[in-house]
Amino acid sequence: MTLRAIFKEQLQDLATCMRTKFSRSSDPRLFQLAGIKAQLDGLDAIIQAPTGSGKTAIAAGPHLWTGVADMTIIMVFPLLALEEEMMDTFQRDLLAKLHFPKLGSIMQNIRNHRPNVSIVIRALEHPQSSYCDLDFILPRQIDNALDIPKTYVYVDNINMGGKIVDYLQSFLRSQNPAPTNTGLVRPFNAALSQKYKQNAIAVFHCVPSADHDKPIICILVCTDAAGIWKLPAIFSNFVQRAGHAGRGRGCTGLAVLLVECSAYLTDLSTCHERSTPATNSIKGKRRSKLRAKAPKDYAKMCELNHRSSRQVDTIHLLSSQPLIDSEATNKGLLAFVQTMKCRRKVWGAVFESSSEDHHAHAHFDSSGILDDTTIGLLFWIGTIKASVHTSLLETSWLWWDCHSAALLEVLSSLKPKFVLWKTESSKKQSTIEPAA
User: Fold this and answer.
1) Which residues does the UniProt record annotate as the domain DEAD/DEAH-box helicase (predicted)?
2) Cα–Cα distance for residue pair 96/164, rounded to 1 Å
C-alpha cells in the first residue's frame, strides 16, 4: 500500500488536528512532526528522545491524516535492549542490521537533557535495612494528601518493596494518624494483577482533592531489577527511571539517587575501571579488575558528607575530577556519582551522540578533514590573529563553513614556544671566536 505523502506546508494542518483530537493546549513538537512525516513519506527514521517527551504521539499522529486512518502501526518496545546501549552504538547497530539506505533516512537526536528535573545524589547515612534514608519522601508536617508529592520509589525486589511500603506507612502514621492517610503508599510489581496495576496507575495520576472523595495514591513503590534504591548496575538505568519525574510540559520533578558509601571507595581520578571484565576461571563469573583503591579522605573530596544530617559539610577539592569511562561496566555511573562538577555535563558526555558534522562513521581518515600540509602551515605561522587564519583558509579549506569556529577556538588556545633551530653550519660558525 502506498502512503499519502505530506508536504511541509501541510504539517501545520496536521499539528492543529492533533492538538484538537488529543485535547492538547499546544502543537506537537518538531521531532514528533518529523517522525510523523517520515512515516507518511515512507522513509526509514531513527528518533532519539528522552523519557516523557511524547514519542507515542509519533505513532498516533499518522492516523489523523487523510487516507491512512484505517492502517495499523505495530509498535515494539525492546526496553532492556535500549537501556543496555548508548545511543550512538544502538544507532550504528540499527543502521547495519535493518539495512537503512545510505540516503533518504531520517536521523533525529534531541538529546537526553531534562532541564525540568533536578538531580540529587546522596550517600546513605543509615544501615540499608533501616530505610531511614527514605524519610525525606514524606514532609514533616502533613495535614492532608495534598502535602505529599507524587513519588516513585524503585527497589530491587518484591520483598524489599514490601518492607519499604510498611516502613513508609508506619512513618506516615507517626506524622499524621488520620484514617484518610491509609493507602497513600502502595506497591507496584509484577506479582500483582493487571487490573490492580491499571487501577493503581490511574489513581496515582489523578490529582488529589482536599475532600478525599476518591481513592488516593501518593507514593508507588515499584519493583524493578534496575531500581534506584541503592546504586543501579549501569548509568542508563538511572537515566531511564529519572525520566519518569516531571513528565509533561510545564511540569518539574526531582530525581534522587541514594548510593552506598562503597561507591566512593574507587579512585576514578587517576585510572579507569577496566571496560572488559576478566573471567574468573574457578567460578565462571565475570569480575572487574584494575579498580584503584581510594586514598584517605577521597570520599570526603567527592562530597560524601554533602548536606548530610551530621552537618559536617566541609568542602575538600580533588586535584583532578573523576575520569569518565562510558565503556566501563557501570557505563560511567561512578563518575556521575563522584564528580564535583555539574552532573549534567557528565550525563551529556556519556549519552550525547556525536554531532553529524563530526563524521564519526565516515570512510575517510582525519586527513580528509584537515590534511598534513594545512596542519604544517598552521604550525609554522604560529600565533596570529583570527582574521589572518580566515584569509588563509576561507577559500582553500573545504570544511571552513562547518568547522572554522572549532578550529579557531583550538588555535587561539595554543601557546606555542618557538626555539631557534640551529643548523650545522651555524653551530660551526658559533665556535669561531672573532679575531682580535
Assistant:
1) 31-94
2) 45
Task: Please tell me which residue, 60 or 6, carries the higher pLDDT value.
Answer: 60
Distance CA 35, CA 16 (A): 16
Sketch the domain layout of the chain as residue ranges: 8-109, 117-351, 369-436
Give the pairing type, strands 286-287 and 45-48: unpaired
Distance CA 299, CA 120 (A): 17
The residue assigned the cell 562513521 is: 361
Averaged pLDDT for residues 163-186: 84
Domain 117-351 superfamily per CATH: P-loop containing nucleotide triphosphate hydrolases (3.40.50.300)
Mean pLDDT (the chain, rounded): 74
* pTM, full prediction: 0.58
Strand partners, 108: 47
**Distance of alpha carbon 387 from alpha carbon 390, whole angstroms:** 5
What pLDDT digit, counting tens, does each position of 289-310 carry? 445 555 556 666 666 666 566 6
- Of 143-157, 253-267, 350-364, where does mean pLDDT reach its minimum? 350-364
What pLDDT was estimated at residue 84?
45
Cell triple for 376: 604544517
> 25-42, pLDDT tens digit by residue?
888 888 888 888 888 888
